[in-house]
Specification:
It is a single chain. By secondary structure, the chain is of the alpha/beta class. The radius of gyration is 20 Å and the shape is elongated. The chain has a seven-stranded mixed sheet with strand order 1-2-3-4-5-6-7, with helices on one face. Strands 8-9-10-11-12 form a five-stranded mixed sheet, with no helix packed on it. The chain is built from six helices and 15 strands. Bound molecules: zinc ion. The site of zinc ion has 7 residues, from loops. Zinc ion binds next to loops.
Length: about 300
């Protein structure tokens, strides 16, 4: 099956720890936490000048927060708002350090799992990478506008990668801070139960209905032409679904049997992560009736065509 070509953008120019301009109203400092999930590291954004908002303060790294505050102190600037796209360990734990040192208020959708529907999933595996400690001082919902001196940021609820995921639009520049929902260097990880493929696909479609000119994801470079990328991510997931249906056309199978066919070109070391992604698709396709199982649904159940 022909793979969808995703127009990735990966060329990131930066210096660790330096507060660098990315647009007239936005600066960024990247934390030194590179990994297979964070690319070069967490990009912490500063919005405005003088009194500023910080989006995704990153991991609980005193060094990173030092770098951020040093860059602002050099110009006599203060942090008044701390916004969180979602509660993963590379995004929200730095908020505690930043609030201790600035007294700024925190904004987010809610605590981890805050957007999760109660009955969802039988898979109670505790999610690695979740920040269970963060609770926003001010809970914001889809469409809420967070205003500071000289900036206004609109919240866009985009569950999928994480049930409490928010993007934020800087209205003046039509820039969308896209968190981990849409990144230029990689597809997003959708891992049940907090990760939800149905929500993710809806949240991608939601962005196609908007007119944002540019995305600034938390990891990787700015995305200057976002709509074709979002469209390709949707097509990529549809192609995965087609692969699952093709696999089940051979007969009932477990996810562990589907994965080696679907991910023939990747290292078997990545199969466990791939299985969670396929499981996210399977749950989505169970909901809309495109596949079925005769046992309680789980990562290990046998699935078949209806
Ligand atoms: Zn992240």
């Amino acid at each position: 099956m022909a793979d969808v070509v995703i127009p990735f953008v990966k060329d990131l120019r930066f210096e660790y720890g330096a507060l660098e301009s990315v647009s007239p109203g936005v600066r960024r400092v990247i934390a030194h936490n590179p990994s297979a999930f964070t690319y070069a590291g967490t990009g912490t954004y500063v919005v405005g000048h003088g009194e500023v908002a910080v989006i995704d303060p990153g991991p609980a790294s005193p060094e990173h927060i030092d770098n951020l505050l040093r860059g602002l102190a050099e110009r006599g600037e203060q942090v008044t708002h701390v916004l969180i796209t979602h509660t993963h360990l590379d995004h929200s734990p730095g908020a505690r350090l930043l609030v201790e040192r600035t007294g700024a208020s925190t904004y987010g959708f809610g605590p981890h799992g805050g957007g999760l529907r109660a009955q969802e999933g039988d898979d109670d595996k505790v999610e690695e990478g979740a920040d269970l400690a963060f609770v926003p001082q001010i809970a914001v919902q889809d469409g809420d506008v967070i205003e500071g001196r000289g900036f206004a940021l609109e919240s866009v609820h985009t569950p999928g990668h994480c049930s409490n995921h928010l993007c934020f639009q800087l209205k003046d520049e039509r820039v969308l801070f896209s968190g981990d929902h849409v990144m230029g260097w990689s597809t997003s990880v959708i891992s049940p139960p907090d990760g939800d493929m149905t929500d993710y696909l809806q949240s991608l479609s939601k962005l196609l209905d908007r007119d944002d000119a540019r995305y600034l994801p938390t990891h990787g470079p700015p995305i200057e032409d976002p709509r074709p990328l979002v469209g390709a991510f949707i097509a990529h997931r549809r192609a995965r679904e087609a692969q699952i249906l093709l696999g089940l056309a051979r007969g009932p199978q477990r996810i562990s049997e589907l994965v080696p066919h679907m991910y023939a070109s990747v290292s078997p070391l990545l199969y466990p992560a791939a299985a969670r992604s396929v499981y996210a698709h399977v749950l989505h396709m169970l909901k809309d009736g495109r596949l079925a199982t005769d046992e309680p649904f789980s990562l290990h159940a046998v699935y078949h065509l209806p």
